[in-house]
């Protein structure tokens, strides 16, 4: 623990580096200033843009309702920061407390926050990925390029992967009356995140909206013409689809490669940290000067068996960044844990989908309100006889109630009547998640660590 007076000197004249000029990085920087940090604040980002909002990229931007350069995140306050944009971090020297940048510069720090997030997983065959007309969608530049190509009026768009992003892209195409085919390795869209029961509803929505949905198939190859433009996607069932735009939506890869050899506990699943956002080194010892927040972080959560959760959720990035920034500036007794209840939303095919908790941990689902056939319902997920998650289709107003059930580790199935309970909600059914060993597209929560224990506790959400 630093000597007496260290924290006061840190707040007055210290050096804090934030790697990741993202939503999490921005909110952390604002919190640092809010909590009295008056020292040198440096923001490092590999993109040339100041922090912007990603959810509109697969929704409003593709629908031409906004443009990528109008997605900048609003500022909550002035930062007085040194912005190093368009230059990636390439290495970390933990002993010397230095971050190496791609331009050769090194930044010294007293406290470091890592919020490098994730990037789109590319098409695995490099030559096919380089064909003109093959896209991914994660960054502002990705959205700009795809928006332009959709505006050019392609004959058909082919989407690889029916997770949330892939499904939102397909929805935007249909809304623009562009023919679209979606290929999904699992049995249904969204199956990795919400299970087969809800996935079947998503499949019906897509087909009724005119999507050519192919499930249970893999894409075996992309073929181009003599000019290097993509023309055909070949599938594992022997069929092929002619398309002049292919969007690869195979999930995300965490940006941790730059930490290789640093001694930090970083890998493909993210950077492990404690509930206070302090990073672990490779020995499992928590560091006291390196913190993590956002999509790249893996932290234990008491509500979910102390499993390490990696959450690609907008609200988690904000909450975890605020907690990390607070803890960077205070004594250990004043630190607080990051215990945000996971929440996610999506808008596709005219339906508003929201979830809370970790549905993918559920073994059973109960349709507690509404009807699957009407595409307006609440599904509650159970695990080891407790409520672990919930999803709503156009029923978001009920979600806070189910969030409370999760926070209080309520029993499953809920032992009380609910509004608009239909006969199909009489008893739980298997949630029908795919075998975890079989890759699917689109989970928004990654579980890792030891198996969850049947632990009972009282959870009081932080109000700060």
From TrEMBL:
Gene3D superfamilies to which the protein is assigned, alphabetical: 3.30.390.30, FAD/NAD(P)-binding domain
Signal peptide: none
Statement: the UniProt record of this protein carries the keyword Transmembrane: no
InterPro entries: FAD-oxidoreductase/Apoptosis, FAD/NAD-bd_sf, FAD/NAD-binding_dom, FAD/NAD-linked_Rdtase_dimer_sf, Reductase_C
GO molecular function terms noted in the UniProt entry: oxidoreductase activity, acting on NAD(P)H
Region Disordered, residue ranges: 420-464
Reductase C-terminal domain: residues covered: 344-414
Cofactor: FAD
Domain of life of the organism encoding this protein: Bacteria
This protein's GO CC annotations: cytoplasm
Protein name: FAD-dependent oxidoreductase
Pfam families: Pyr_redox_2 (PF07992), Reductase_C (PF14759)
Tagged with keyword tRNA-binding: no
Keyword terms: FAD, Flavoprotein, Oxidoreductase
